[in-house]
Amino acid sequence: MCGRTCLTLEPNEILKACRYKTSKFQKSPINQDDNKSEDLNDRKECCGHIKGQYIEPEWRSEFNCGRKYVPSFNIAPNDVTPVLISRDHFCDEGDSKAESGHHRLLIPMLWGLIPFWHKGDYSKHKLTTNNCRLERMLESKLYNNAFKRGHRCVVLCEGFYEWQTKSPERAVYLFYMPQKEKAIIHDRNTWEPEDINLLKMAGVFDVWQDEQGDKIYSYSVITYESNEVMSWLHHRMPAVLETEQQITDWLDFKNISNEEALAALRQPVSVLEKHRVANLVNNARNKSNLCNKPIELIQSEKPTMNKLMSTWLNLRTPSASSKAYKDDKDDAKNKNHNLVSTTDDSESEPENRNAKRRRFV
Question: Where is this region: Disordered (predicted)?
Fold first, then answer.
């Protein structure tokens, strides 16, 4: 399953991380000399890009009833995250823009699909929709409708967290795609947005509309039975899209049928990197930058943190306060005793002198 993710990039950085190559141009073998101008036009996609070059998807900001994407080390269901979809979803039938089938948009969407038929407050549909089981998707009244309408999407993250269900301590791991040699996923200083290999998961999305006409885009992550990559940890895993061709086919609902798209999904990811993290991620409100760090790094920092904390606490512990109070009380008592003794001596001295004088009188 997939219940927490990590995505710390800003929107402009995500665009750089999602650069993709447009479909390659193949010159027509017919009338090559007579149709050079036509060939040149064919090389250009609807947005003016040449086939075969790397381009960025377009960012499309949706109102989503005021909900916005916020980069986070600990993203949970009901948060908003950027999702890739085909540009064809916003093209009318017969529009020239709809002919390519390969252009991508990035849209912020709510994690947890809201059924389009739901009435009332969108947050009160009382359905758990952060994950969609592939095995039941085509029979589900909730997901089948969206899938048949071509609402296929790609969910982006730097990695996802998973808990070990077969361990009493419920160890947590961060899973992510293999990176370039010097790129360390949890250390932002070692990579640039255009170099990071984001993890991409297949999903389905839908569009819900309230009584005022405001829309919310929302999605579910597709999951299936774990293969050897994750079966030791959990019996379910997200449908990770490993290759660029898988991503293209999943998004291209115009040219790739649902059957073909599903066939591509049934090829589980062959390799994922991982490291164990601390249980900080258990609390969805904890957005600390320690969430995605290996647990070894956090433990190595722990003694210093504990020393500072213990010093701070020791100054305020009841025992220390009581001791300080007792010492102050003893000091005050001794001081008062000294004052009394001095006073007694000074007051008794004339009496002694008088007594001595009386002896000689």
Answer: 319-361
The yes or no reply on domain 4-23+50-300 and CATH 3.90.1680.10 is yes
Q: Is the pTM of this model over 0.85?
A: no
DSSP secondary structure code for residue 110 in this structure:
E
**Active site residues per annotation:** 2, 162
* Domains in the chain: boundaries: 4-23+50-300
Q: What is the pLDDT of residues 273-325, one digit of tens each?
A: 999 999 999 999 999 999 999 999 988 765 444 454 445 445 444 544 444 44
Cβ atoms within 10 Å of 68's Cβ, excluding its own: 10
Q: Is there a contact between 86 and 105 (Cβ–Cβ < 8 Å)? A: yes
- Per-residue pLDDT tens for 41-56? 444 444 555 666 889 9
C-beta separation of 57 from 106 below 8 A: yes
